[in-house]
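Q: Hi! Curious about what SCP domain-containing protein looks like structurally. Here's the sequence.
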Amino acid sequence: MVHIFFASTCLVFLMLIVDPVHSQDHHQIDAADFLKLVNWRRRMFAKVFRHPSMYELAWDKDLEEVSKGSWDPKKKVGNNYRSRLAKGGYTRAVYFLREGMHEFHDKDTANKLEEFLNKWENDDINDMEFFVPDQKKIGCSAKWHENENWLHCVLGPKTQLTSMKDWKGEKAGTKCNKGDTEIDGLCRWSGRDGDGEDDGKGDSFVSGSSTVGPQLLMILFFLYKYI
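A: Let's find out. The predicted structure is below.
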């Protein structure tokens, strides 16, 4: 039993270090790359953790404008959004998205996920904010805060974490809301009007000098599921 847990953890770790975008401190990705990366990670999350109703995010101009306002540490949850201030701006996107997935895995494995989500539902849940399944829109802007670059992202329309707490493991994309479309494991909201649509042809795109296709992801997922 111990060796199975160890092997599964190692495979999750391998998935966490694989990214479809090359991002280093000297290479600044833009908002379009960031949106693709977030959705690629959300798709990976849905497939690995078997979440049946993880939604694809669309870029939303209104939420982008909200993100440009003054950051208030006492108001991280609004009337129709949740927000996250991530250190490092777009440059560090690979790292804080990876950390969000890693933290979810650690808390879920230790049976501490629901306790954590209940405690911080009215605040923020660190980088796991990017993986709240029923969020459908996102808007971000760069911030200079405490003498460092940060990225302020606002995600909506949900304010609660029910979709992250109350779900049973099922095939990704099999529980999309009526009228919405499944695109390779993610649900696409029929009411979306944002930018950055995913064509559903897989998880491969290029930025800088690194590419990752869907084949490696599926091999890792198969091993994680059946080991």
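A: A fun detail: The chain has seven helices and eight strands.
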